[in-house]
Every structure is written in structure tokens, then in C-alpha cells.
Amino acid sequence: MTTPSSRALLRIGIPVLKVAVALGLVIWIARRVDFAEGWAAVRTLSATTIWVSVFLLLFQALLSAWRWCLLSEMIGQRLKMTGAMKLFMQSLFYNQALPSPIPGDAARIFGAVKYGLTVGEATLGVVMDRILTLFGLAVVALIGLIIMRAFYGHDFPIPYLAELTALGVTGSIASALVFIWRRHFFIRFLPAKLHALSAALQAFITHRRMVGIFLLTLVIHGLSVVSLEILVLGLGLPLDWGQAAAAFPPVLLIAMVPISVGGWGLREGGMIISLAVFGIGTTDAATLSVVFGLLQLVVGLAGGVFVLSRPHSGKIKAL
């Protein structure tokens, strides 16, 4: 059992460690990058390219908020899009400004409570949204790894990444099927605090909209790939749409590993490794990743407008 002092140390130590990892990776990569060449490439980007990429990321946030609304409806009470989008943008701001996703999730939970949901409904909605986001990204990454191996004859240069991703996806699907078949058996062994989550998972898996929400999740992740390819075209890099579909999803999955801040360093390293398979150099790959990360940062910081605005006085009622 951890003492209060050890818990406080963890709360401070983990974010500091994440910042250190991000800085270490960025510095290590920066030493291998030609900044003059990278800056020259950035200057070739047109305003149209940048605005289209930002629009796609904002549209991604809109679809993510909509999915959160649908998941909340399955659990108890659906949020209206106006409030959900406001809370989601606030969470993006916290996720970009702070070295942990927890404040962003907390902002969504407590914001949803103020708008009429119970604490349990709000918490389950955010947890389910997180689970679906991770699983959907794993599926998209697995598709990319299969494309890379089957159509281009290349394997991702991280050993067994395809096998591990396939194992995770297959294991998740198998667990869901077994859970549907014998949920009552598992309930007896789960802590009481997880009973509500198990009921929410059951409701999602057996819901008539489950397939549609999962496809929506794939579209949400696909928008990141499209936004990256738009930047690729703007930078004049030799990477077509099929290669983008193969190269980018595994990088986005690597960037989700919670050992950095906002994926910085991990995303750049993964991009360099992935695009090297298609003959793109370190500087070009790192430049692409940094520009994409900065645009994500811009969209996230735009959520600060909602944080600074006066809280909405009304409640989000059930539709």
C-alpha cells in the first residue's frame, strides 16, 4: 500500500519523467537533422495546405465529440453536440498544455456532470471513449502494417510490431466474444468498482450501433492519415496515398505510448523509422512530424478559448 508521500512523489515524478523522455528524444533526433534543409521545406508549405490540414484536425475533433455523445447515450444520457464539442476542445487544450491526459479527461467528466450527467455516466463515457480510441488505432495500425508487408514487400523496422499489434487486436476481439458469452462468470471475479464498466462494455458490444460507432472511429483515425498526406504533398515528398496508409498508422500508435508528452519525440522517431522504408530521409521525415505536431498543438491550444470562456449556464439534456 502506497503512503501519501509516495503517491505525491508519483504525481510529480511521472510527469517529470515524461518531459525528460520527450526532451531526450527530441534532442537526440535534432542532432541528426539538417535544420536549414528542414526550414527550407517548411517555407514551401502554402497557406492552403496548412489550413486544409488544420480543418481536417478540427473535423476530427468534431467527429470525436459526436462519438462521445453516442457512447454516452448507450450508457445513460446523451450529450448534445454543442456541449460535447466544447468539453472535448477543453480536454485537447489540457492534453497539449500538460504532461498528462488525466486533467483533460477530468475536464470532460466534471464538465459533463455540470451539464446533467451523473459522475458514473460521465466517467464511463470517457473511459469507453478512451478504450475505443486505442482499440481503433490498433486496428488502423494493423491494417497499415499489413499493407506495408503485403503490397510493398517491407516490414516495419521495429521487430515483431506487426505480430504484437495483431495479437493485441485479436486478443481484444476474443475477450469481447468470451465476455458476451459468459459475462456473468467474469462479474463474480471483478471488483465492485468495475461492475459498472463491465455493464457499459456489454451495452456497447451488443448495441445495434456498435458497428457504426467503430467505423466512425476508423474514420476519425483516418483523418490523421489524410492530414499527414496533405502535408506530404505540400512538402513535395515522394509518398503516395497507399504508402501513407501503410506508414502513418503505426507511427500514430507508437506516439500513443504514455512515456512522453503529447507523443513528442516518439512520433518523430517513429516517423523517421517508418518513412525510411520508402526512401525518405531523416530531415524530411522529422520535418513532416514536427509540422504535424505543431498543427495538433494549434488545434489543442484553440481549446483554450473554451477554457477561458464563461461556463455554460444550461444543462445538456437527454435527447
From TrEMBL:
Task: Supply the alphabetized keyword list.
Answer: Cell membrane, Membrane, Plasmid, Transmembrane, Transmembrane helix
Q: Which GO terms describe its cellular component?
A: plasma membrane
Q: How does it sit in the membrane?
A: Multi-pass membrane protein
Q: What is this protein called?
A: Flippase-like domain-containing protein
Known InterPro entries for this protein? L-PG_synthase/AglD (IPR022791)
Q: Where in the cell is it found?
A: Cell membrane
**Bilayer-crossing regions:** 12-30, 50-71, 131-152, 158-180, 211-237, 244-266, 286-308
